[in-house]
């Protein structure tokens, strides 16, 4: 009975974090966009507008749940829940620090890639179930986009997995710091397992993984339907895309899933490529910076710092680059990212055999 209560508490804590992060991220995105456009952003509700997002979500929760008369009611109602749950359960396999992981799985990364794919099913259900031409167009665009960009994203992650020789997210994180039980070689030659810091991260252990990281990050933008890959929700063409007909709590679930997906994509990038919860500070002679900044508390700090930095870059890109056309988006995926990601995978195999 106690174990079930613990599972429930962890699940509730992860949900509370996802909701709290979404409130913070929406406010941060408004301020980031305002900064880039020489505006102030929200300023009226609370000091510097800090309560604006809370006011918006309270208003959203009080709105009526409207189901279009011509909609497929079962699909329409179930879709937002499936979209959110597919992203939310991915949080279970994320390591937050040394020994801090809700569920440690030998196939943790494989589980994440598989469970996130279910979001596509929810998006298709939302578009088809709405019986709205804009919704179905947005859903079809989103499905084509997500399925296509999963291929270069998968190849990029496999490139790192071939170096790490593990699909366990916690093991991948351990290998990139001073707590590693095996030698960690910078550029395949210099053992830095006792030095730690930046040099032990995967993007420095095998430099071609910098390219793989870039490919994964771009593909993550597309999988999250973030600009410049937001054609499934293109307001100028499709009103709001697959969630055009949603109101109230149902729309809140779709909105929550989008920002949770931003965090999940960033966390996977952090764990697989950027050292996970490991410190960027090295041990230099008698000054043991890596030793002093490696424990569960520091681990949470480093993990969140790296993830939030990537999320800031996602927001920065949204308010900087114009939206791609559909043909440009597909050309980038199939003609640029997929061949590059496949090349990274081949290089990882050669690196593992001849260098490491």
TrEMBL record:
Keyword set includes Cell inner membrane: no
Lipid bilayer topology: Multi-pass membrane protein
EC number: 7.1.1.-
Compartment annotation: Cell membrane; Membrane
MF terms (GO), sorted A to Z: NADH dehydrogenase activity; oxidoreductase activity, acting on NAD(P)H, quinone or similar compound as acceptor; quinone binding
Residue ranges the record marks as coiled coil: none
Catalysed reactions, semicolon-separated: a quinone + NADH + 5 H(+)(in) = a quinol + NAD(+) + 4 H(+)(out)
Transmembrane regions listed in the UniProt entry: 6-27, 74-96, 108-128, 149-167, 251-276, 296-317, 329-351
Enzyme class per UniProt: translocase
Subunit structure: NDH-1 is composed of 14 different subunits. Subunits NuoA, H, J, K, L, M, N constitute the membrane sector of the complex.
Family: Belongs to the complex I subunit 1 family.
Protein purpose: NDH-1 shuttles electrons from NADH, via FMN and iron-sulfur (Fe-S) centers, to quinones in the respiratory chain. The immediate electron acceptor for the enzyme in this species is believed to be ubiquinone. Couples the redox reaction to proton translocation (for every two electrons transferred, four hydrogen ions are translocated across the cytoplasmic membrane), and thus conserves the redox energy in a proton gradient. This subunit may bind ubiquinone.
The protein, known as: NADH-quinone oxidoreductase subunit H
Gene (name only): nuoH
């Amino acid at each position: 009975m106690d174990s079930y209560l613990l599972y429930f508490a962890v699940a509730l804590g992860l949900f509370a974090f996802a909701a709290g992060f979404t409130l913070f991220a929406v406010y941060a995105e408004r301020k980031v966009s305002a900064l880039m456009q020489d505006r102030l952003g929200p300023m009226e509700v609370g000091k510097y507008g800090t309560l604006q997002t809370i006011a918006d979500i309270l208003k959203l929760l009080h709105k009526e749940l409207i189901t279009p008369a011509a909609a497929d009611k079962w699909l329409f109602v179930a879709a937002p829940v499936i979209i959110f749950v597919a992203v939310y359960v991915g949080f279970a396999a994320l390591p937050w620090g040394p020994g801090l992981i809700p569920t440690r799985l030998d196939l943790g990364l494989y589980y994440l890639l598989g469970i996130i794919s279910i979001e596509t099913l929810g998006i298709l259900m939302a578009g088809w179930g709405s019986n709205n031409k804009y919704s179905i167009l947005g859903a079809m665009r989103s499905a084509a986009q997500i399925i296509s960009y999963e291929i270069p994203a998968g190849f990029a992650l496999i490139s790192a997995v071939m170096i790490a020789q593990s699909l366990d997210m916690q093991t991948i994180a351990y290998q990139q710091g001073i707590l590693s039980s095996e030698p960690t070689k910078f550029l395949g030659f210099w053992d830095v397992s006792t030095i730690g810091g930046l040099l032990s991260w995967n993007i420095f252990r095998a430099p071609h993984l910098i390219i793989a990281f870039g490919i994964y990050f771009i593909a993550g933008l597309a999988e999250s339907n973030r600009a410049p890959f937001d054609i499934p929700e293109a307001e100028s063409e499709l009103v709001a895309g697959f969630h055009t007909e949603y109101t109230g709590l149902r729309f809140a679930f779709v909105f929550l899933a989008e920002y949770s997906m931003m965090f999940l994509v960033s966390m996977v990038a952090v764990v697989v490529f950027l050292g996970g919860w490991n410190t960027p500070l090295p041990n230099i002679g008698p000054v043991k910076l890596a030793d002093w900044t490696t424990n569960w508390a520091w681990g949470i700090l480093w993990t969140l710092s790296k993830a939030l930095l990537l999320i800031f870059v996602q927001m920065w890109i949204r308010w900087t680059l114009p939206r791609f056309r559909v043909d440009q988006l597909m050309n980038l995926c199939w003609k640029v990212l997929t061949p590059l990601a496949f090349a990274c995978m081949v290089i990882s195999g050669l690196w593992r055999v001849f260098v490491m």
